[in-house]
């Protein structure tokens, strides 16, 4: 590798990661979500205020939440609400539960085994709800705390954990729909919004490269106008401001229905949000309320793989647009930056852990072979004369002691590895040694994923993003065998 090839690469946490090869030169239109995509909120500050507004609504109903406070470490993106058991769980890509929390208490391994021994997390089942956006952090915290109250019989009138979840969810939906929280955000943007100075340049580059750039958001026009003005500031055309960065703006899009069914389309004809029916359809440079993806495709004269949609919500943004329309998809996962940093900081210990596990596997192979040899001798079916098993038993005992010592060395490293990024739940994309359910959803529906939109600018609108060669267990064994053969080990 030449020096300039390595120097051109962004730092690891700011790279674009590819699940399916994507030629950005073939993309002719790029649509963007707004919240947690173009606008990145300071998660703890935003979610604390959302939590507080919902808590006040429940307090007004008489719920005993006077002393409850938002805990940003209680949950992470990618967990699953089990509304039948009152649990939050982390599952691997196959749906096996690896960690579980009932209310605010982590379940022991034995408790977890009893609840989920015959249960796989299947997101098609109504009892399971994936935390697919950072907006769910306040919901998860409030739900966990109210499960504790429900178990203590302090929430009369609530019928089960499912009814409790629905009540908490509705209270937060109301908070997001009403204007009080949004007014707080607009009034103190530095508290809630993390600016990205490279964002506007990224959008300009896309347009200069001949791509149509669209804003398609569920937020209403008043909030969209305020947030875009805060994020982008002044633009060359003072009369249109931030709108010069987009070929079209669609607000109140009602995703995921935007991608799946026809919806009424209105034109926003005044800064105050006055609407009129868009009888003539879409027009370049316009601002619209509602509508649907089919109308957008018809206006652009594009469809399917010619369009890339970028959002933060696994279901509403990338799952539906990918499954129904075959648009190319990009998922914004801001936590990837922290995840990559945590993995980098743990590299030395990870190498030590890998070395110990390699040595343990070698001891285990010897141990299992000796057990089989002892079995054959004691059974007298190995085809050789019976010999004393005492020596074998002695060696087996020594190997057991060696394995015990090895486990004592491995345990603290394995525990630290399991607590990277979050002491309760660990890494977002891992569940034990396997991929997490979140990682599987991202792998399945997002062609690419990255921590922020401006990372697309760093890789340029002309990049050919190649997916890595998929690895299989026998690939790893073949590679190891090749190394051992070459080194004589």
Can you characterise this structure?
With about 500 residues, the protein is α/β, with parallel strands linked by helices. Among the domains are: about 45-185, no CATH class; about 345-420. The chain is about 45% helix and about 15% strand. The protein contains 18 helices and 21 strands. Helix 2 crosses helix 5 (about 160-175). The longest helix has about 35 residues, at about 345-380. The model is unreliable at about 235-240 (pLDDT under 50).
Tally of helical runs: 18
SS strand fraction = 5-15%
Q: Could you give the count of β-strands?
A: 21
Any idea what the radius of gyration is? 27 Å
Largest sheet: 10 strands, mixed
| Helix share bin | 40-55%
Mean pLDDT: 91
Low-confidence stretches: 235-239
- What structural class do you assign from the helix and strand content? alpha/beta
- Give, in spatial order, the strands making up the sheet with the most strands: 1-20-17-16-3-11-12-15-13-14
Spatial separation of the terminal alpha carbons? 29 Å
Write the layout of secondary structure elements.
Elements: H1 3-7, E1 17-18, E2 22-23, E3 29-32, E4 40-41, H2 43-60, E5 80-82, E6 87-91, E7 97-102, E8 105-106, H3 109-116, E9 128-130, H4 136-151, H5 160-177, H6 179-187, H7 189-192, E10 193-194, H8 199-208, E11 212-216, H9 221-232, E12 248-251, H10 257-260, E13 265-268, E14 275-277, E15 287-290, H11 293-300, E16 307-311, H12 314-325, E17 328-332, H13 336-345, H14 347-379, H15 390-418, E18 430-431, E19 434-435, H16 437-445, E20 448-450, H17 454-459, E21 464-465, H18 473-487
Parallel strand pairs: 3-11, 3-16, 11-12, 12-15, 16-17, 17-20
Antiparallel strand pairs: 1-20, 2-21, 4-10, 5-6, 5-9, 6-7, 7-8, 13-14, 13-15, 18-19
Helix pairs in contact: 2-4, 2-5, 4-5, 12-16, 14-15
């Amino acid at each position: 590798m030449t020096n300039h090839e390595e120097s051109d690469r962004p730092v690891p946490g700011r790279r674009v990661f590819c699940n399916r090869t994507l030629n950005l030169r073939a993309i002719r239109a790029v649509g963007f979500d707004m919240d947690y995509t173009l606008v990145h909120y300071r998660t703890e500050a935003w979610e604390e205020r959302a939590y507080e507004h919902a808590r006040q609504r429940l307090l007004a109903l008489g719920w005993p939440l006077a002393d409850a406070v938002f805990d940003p470490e209680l949950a992470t993106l990618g967990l699953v609400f089990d509304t039948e058991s009152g649990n939050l769980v982390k599952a691997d890509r196959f749906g096996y539960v690896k960690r579980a929390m009932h209310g605010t208490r982590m379940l022991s391994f034995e408790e977890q085994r009893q609840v989920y021994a015959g249960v796989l997390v299947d997101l098609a089942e109504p009892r399971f709800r994936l935390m697919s956006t950072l907006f769910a952090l306040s919901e998860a915290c409030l739900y966990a705390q109210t499960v504790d109250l429900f178990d203590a019989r302090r929430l009369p009138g609530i019928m089960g954990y499912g009814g409790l979840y629905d009540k908490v969810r509705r209270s937060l939906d109301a908070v997001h729909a009403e204007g009080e929280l949004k007014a707080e955000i607009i009034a103190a943007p530095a508290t809630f919004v993390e600016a990205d100075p490279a964002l506007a340049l990224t959008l300009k580059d896309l347009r200069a490269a001949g791509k149509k750039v669209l804003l398609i958001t569920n937020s209403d026009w008043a909030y969209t106008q305020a947030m875009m003005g805060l994020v982008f500031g002044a633009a060359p055309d003072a009369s249109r401001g931030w709108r010069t960065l987009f070929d079209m703006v669609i607000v109140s899009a009602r995703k995921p229905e935007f991608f799946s069914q026809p919806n009424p389309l209105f034109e926003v004809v005044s800064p105050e949000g006055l609407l009129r029916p868009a009888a003539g359809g879409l027009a370049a440079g316009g601002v619209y309320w509602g509508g649907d993806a089919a109308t957008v495709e018809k206006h652009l004269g594009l469809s399917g793989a010619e369009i890339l949609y970028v959002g933060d919500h696994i279901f509403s943004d990338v799952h539906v647009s990918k499954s129904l329309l075959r648009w190319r998809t990009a998922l914004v996962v801001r936590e990837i930056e922290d995840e990559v940093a945590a993995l980098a900081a743990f590299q030395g210990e990870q190498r030590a852990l890998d070395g110990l596990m390699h040595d343990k596997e070698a001891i285990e192979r010897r141990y299992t072979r000796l057990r089989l040899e002892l079995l054959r001798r004691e059974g007298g079916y190995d085809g050789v004369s019976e010999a004393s098993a005492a020596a074998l038993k002695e060696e087996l005992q020594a190997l057991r002691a060696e394995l015990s010592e090895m486990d004592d060395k491995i345990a603290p490293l394995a525990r630290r590895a399991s607590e990277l990024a979050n002491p309760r739940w660990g890494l977002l994309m891992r569940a034990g040694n396997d991929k997490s359910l979140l990682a599987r959803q991202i792998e399945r529906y997002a062609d690419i994923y990255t921590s922020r939109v401006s990372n697309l600018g760093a890789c340029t609108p002309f990049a050919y993003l190649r997916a890595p060669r998929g690895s299989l267990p026998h690939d790893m064994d073949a590679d190891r065998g090749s190394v051992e053969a070459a080194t004589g080990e």
